[in-house]
Design goal:
homodimer, 238 residues, alpha/beta, Rossmann fold, DNA polymerase, domain 1, 2 domains, six-stranded parallel β-sheet, 11 helices, 6 strands, 45% helix, globular
């Protein structure tokens, strides 16, 4: 019996793995900016915003800061970037709308089909650093057919802390080896494997744009390696 | 503007409101017992099991016992009832299977249609004392199209404690008044209303069988009163 034969649930990293955050943000804010007469290098803006993601979570991971959801961290980063990029004339309502662009991210083209196939046989859910409200709204926006929304907020721990993976398995009343993490990031999978989960790598070679230099291939022998969610579904017998 | 116009999410009590636990358990265990040659008064067994539900949670609500999920409470009650009803010859695997009957409960006939209609406009989710794993499997069994699984386990508080309702709204980043609880139980709705939620009563006159003597009508002027989830959908503009 292969290790993956024991799997009952597939949990997914979301930003970059399920949804194309960079293109979605660029397109959304370009349209928004045009409507408001606000000009910016929105590609640089998207990249800068994402660059502030790990440092913001590090404050919480380290215990220097009490539990804080990602919507709030995103908003603090946004306020820094509005100043850095010199964007003027944005109302509070505009800033709230911009911050919620993370709720309006589009799935990669194969995502909904692959998830739908996997859902016929497995529990499918999120295992994301996004907060529950963000992930719930993103799923409705993009038609993602999750069975369950799990992740940092339900674990009160940001990935890659072990508790993020362990608490997610526990909430499903499964042993870690009965849960597979699907992610486009080798580091996330390494942390999941250390916590005892099964692993599936899906390459997303343009997550970071045309000059992406990381996560272009599987860096270890993950249980599944595929180039789409449909490939994961096939590998898992769906 | 009516109070309900501000609602963004409808969260549902599950046992009795969404699913017909009593008929489901009687039918499931009657078949199981016939296959195993185990005879019992399964209707009485179902009622006795449900009667042990509130006392078991009271141990946790009171703080006399640390947080314990419903699957575990159900199993403890099951072991008591197996002795009380004199059921012999059940293996551990049989007991595990019987305990998971709570994962195999059938929706009331109007439930899936009403939820599907509501889902087009609102976030729909659970707000149940069932654990996340139980509710997730029940949804797959019955085709319940939840956006999100919330309740006692994500709040670490059993209804009707206020924290169960407040934490569920908080996880959706909503104010209590933006969340409506849908329930077949006046007491659950009263606790939700005290916590600031909106309320919808759906009468389920046979939840407790043909001689039901409680929750046969709305005991207060809840925001919505209906006799099915389709009625709730209509009242909410879906």
């Amino acid at each position: 019996m292969a290790a993956k034969d024991d799997v009952q649930a597939l949990l997914f990293d979301v930003f970059g793995t399920v949804v194309d955050w960079r293109t979605s943000i660029i397109d959304d804010l370009t349209r928004f900016g045009a409507g408001k007469g606000v000009k910016a290098d929105w590609a640089q803006f998207a990249d800068d915003w994402r660059d502030l993601y790990q440092p913001a979570m590090d404050e919480v991971r380290s215990g220097r800061r009490p539990w804080t959801i990602l919507d709030v961290l995103h908003r603090e980063s946004l306020d820094k970037l509005i100043a850095r990029h010199g964007l003027a004339g944005l109302s509070e309502a505009d800033k709230v709308h911009i911050n919620k662009v993370w709720h309006r991210l589009k799935p990669w083209p194969d995502a909904v089909e692959g998830l739908t196939r996997l859902k016929s046989r497995y529990i499918i859910g999120t295992l994301s650093n996004g907060n529950v409200g963000l992930l719930t709204r993103m799923a409705k926006f993009g038609g993602l057919p999750w069975d369950v929304i799990l992740g940092a907020e339900t674990a009160l721990a940001y990935k890659p802390l072990p508790q993020a993976y362990l608490a997610s398995a526990e909430l499903l009343n499964l042993r870690p080896a009965q849960v597979m993490l699907v992610a486009a990031h080798n580091g996330d999978l390494a942390a999941a494997a250390n916590a005892g989960l099964r692993t599936a790598f899906v390459v997303r070679p343009t997550e970071h744009g045309p000059r992406q230099d990381r996560d272009l291939e599987a860096e270890r022998a993950w249980d599944v390696v595929a180039d789409s969610f449909v490939g994961v579904a096939k590998a898992m017998g769906c």
